[in-house]
Automatic annotation (TrEMBL):
EC number: 3.6.3.-
Domain ChlI/MoxR AAA lid intervals: 231-303
Name of the protein described by the UniProt record: ATPase RavA
The species this protein was found in: Thermovenabulum gondwanense
Domain ATPase AAA-3 as annotated: residue spans: 39-169
Length: 313
């Protein structure tokens, strides 16, 4: 990729690294989703830095950031906005909801009812939303970073398959290592490092960078390799429902974006292997026998990748 592209990515990672300790791979994946025009589901326990990471990314990109704390009593209009009648003028005025932004943090999205969760579907897929029959376009770029706690199940509503399929990736952050946690204590003990994060990239520049992804070469042999992995998810004996054609398209865009972030204008097999789990694991529905045996989608993908021949130049 062009030198300017690579330098800007390094600057973003450097600034975010001042706030988020030891999670460069997670930040790279979120930036990959942003470049590929996709959304991210962060699934992890509370307190590992999901909100902080989203704020740092938004600030480094000079993008508008809003956060919704989902609760069971939240309604769709709390997300999208509502028309309010003005008695003086006799007109309805639209009071916009938090969805009017560039980066939306949907915190604990699985605490909202299915009706409220579904209010995000049109926005995530078509970059628009409809209230009282009027459709409004969203700002560009638009990224949803949703979080959910995989441990606490009481008072939650599991995301339906249609909603899960709208997320480009599902990422687990994980706990920090000992020295990383020590660095967190010392860094945040001196103040809030988030205040040191400066804008590196504007929304307009980000959209221009997306256009450059068209120049990333994706060899036909690697296309076949990626498609074989996707198609094998539909045939695997442990799987009831495999990855959809939408998954193939998102996987394709994601791999090209990741290659660009790594400073290359071409895709390599390791890009596909590395991204297979975050892009595909939440799209697989296992059959009853596999669930009983505590088999996981990650195990299926490990098996498929192990048994799929890698293209050789």
């Amino acid at each position: 990729m062009e030198a300017g592209f690579e330098e800007k990515i390094k600057d973003i990672l450097n600034y975010i690294g001042k706030v988020v300790v030891g999670k460069t791979h997670v930040v790279e994946l979120i930036l990959t989703a942003l470049l590929a025009d996709g959304h991210v589901l962060l699934e992890d326990v509370p307190g590992v830095g999901k909100t902080l990471m989203a704020k740092a990314i938004a600030r480094s990109l000079d993008l508008e950031f809003k956060r919704i704390q989902f609760t069971p009593d939240m309604l769709p209009q709390d997300v999208l906005g509502v028309n309010i009648y003005n008695q003086k003028t006799g007109d309805f005025l639209f009071n916009e909801g938090p969805i009017i932004t560039n980066i939306l943090l949907a915190d604990e999205i699985n605490r909202a009812t299915p009706r409220t969760q579904s209010s995000l579907l049109e926005a995530m897929e078509e970059r628009q939303f409809t209230v009282d029959g009027v459709t409004r376009r969203l700002k560009a770029p638009f990224l949803v970073i949703a979080t959910q706690n995989p441990v606490e199940m009481e008072g939650t509503f599991p995301l339906p398959e249609a909603q899960l399929d709208r997320f480009l990736m599902k990422i687990d952050i994980g706990y920090p290592q000992l020295e990383e946690e020590r660095l967190i204590l010392r860094r945040f003990g001196k103040g809030n490092p988030l205040e040191e994060v400066k804008p590196v990239l504007t929304g307009k520049e980000l959209l221009e960078m997306r256009e450059r992804l068209k120049k990333v070469n994706f060899d036909e042999s690697l296309e076949n390799y990626m498609l074989t992995i996707v198609r094998e998810t539909r045939k695997h004996p442990a799987v009831k429902l495999g990855a959809s054609p939408r998954a193939s398209l998102l996987f394709y865009r994601c791999v090209k974006a990741f290659a660009a972030i790594k400073g290359r204008d071409y895709v390599i097999p390791d890009d596909i292997k590395y991204l297979a789990k975050p892009v595909l694991n939440h799209r697989l529905i296992l059959n009853y026998e596999s669930v009983i045996k505590n088999y996981k989608p990650e195990d299926v993908l490990d098996d498929i990748i192990k048994n799929t021949p890698v293209p050789v130049e």
